[in-house]
Amino acid sequence: MGRKELLSMSPSETVRIGEEMGRVARPGTIYALYGELGSGKTEFVKGIAKGLGVEEWEYVCSPTFTIMNVYEGRMRLCHVDLFRIRGEEVGALAIEEYLDDGVVCVEWAEKGRFEGAVKVYIDVLSETQRRFLIVEP
Q1: Average pLDDT over residues 107-117
Q2: Can you tell me the mean pLDDT for 16-41?
Q3: β-strand pairing of 130-136 with 118-124
Q4: Domain 2-136 is classified in which CATH homologous superfamily?
Q5: What does the DSSP 8-state code read for residue 52?
């Protein structure tokens, strides 16, 4: 298991951190995102989309109401937001179907169980600063 800590001083740095993760992502990777409301989870996913070659990555938005958005790049990106989901409803989303040829990012991952996921913990340090703890299986 690998662990690394990164510091972001701005939303654009948060995107850059995600972009680096997206560039090295492999099909079947799940990023389980943990952090309070406004911590930068969606900015991180924008970066992953950019790293995966999603052309309009800057338009990635949190699927709070739609629950799931799918973007095409060099690999498919499935972006899931569990904020409005109850735990027993997570299985009905069938996110494993996106893992054969893509990457899944799950916001509010504490509402489900994601075996083998890369866990990304985001702590708010100030209005613009965030600390990322990335734990790989």
Answers
A1: 89
A2: 95
A3: antiparallel
A4: P-loop containing nucleotide triphosphate hydrolases (3.40.50.300)
A5: T
